Amino acid sequence: MNEFLFIGIPYLAVAVCVIGTIVRFRGDRFSITSHSTQFIENRWLFWGSNSWHWGILLILAAHVAPMIAPGWWQSLLGEPTRLYILEVTGYGIAFLAAFGLGVLILRRLLSESLLALTSRADWLLLVVLAFQVATGIWVAVAYRWGGAWYPDAAVPWLRSLVTLQPDIAAIAAMPWPVQLHAVSGFALLVLLPYTRLIHAITYPVAYLWRPYQLVLWNRRAGRTHEPAPSARQATAARPAARAQLDERS
Question: Which residue, of 30, 147, 155, 166, has the fewest CB within 10 Å?
């Protein structure tokens, strides 16, 4: 069972994510978007979207940093004061993300227009995200000082999966809430190609070299504008050209 949970599910989730993303990009790349509903409702979206995105991005950074630079992370938390500051900051960021996600869910429930536009895939994604955030807060509260034990519990397992040499000894020894949070995180990879979550892997790199979009405002709206000389000449030439075509026919 441990091999299925901590080896089979992660690799299966990654395979589904990669293949599904490639198929969607090649078959319907214009559907890769967040499907913004800002025009329908903007006030709740401002507070929910900003709180959620900033919170979850900082949480992901705290999860990835020990994997990329484990030595730097351990030296950073080697002093008790810094560990305490990280613990308190982590609580604040986690509740910020939970607040933002809660606002986004309530926003869809309380607006008839948004409720009609919300698909089953959207609800499934919101439920999985809420479950993942809830289990993360549960683990943070029930098993304190996660910044200290996370590099020794989950990081070796995750790094072994990346190197294709799975080692589940560390994660298998952790309490079941920690294991549940770790395994359920891969459910988001499965949903990524088939929901609006796919916008998380898109970056507006083309904006760096695309031409500027020029917007012209008509400040004399309501007035009668005289056509440009080139336009007048073209308008005057049309009857003569049409008469020549009639004579030839």
Answer: 30
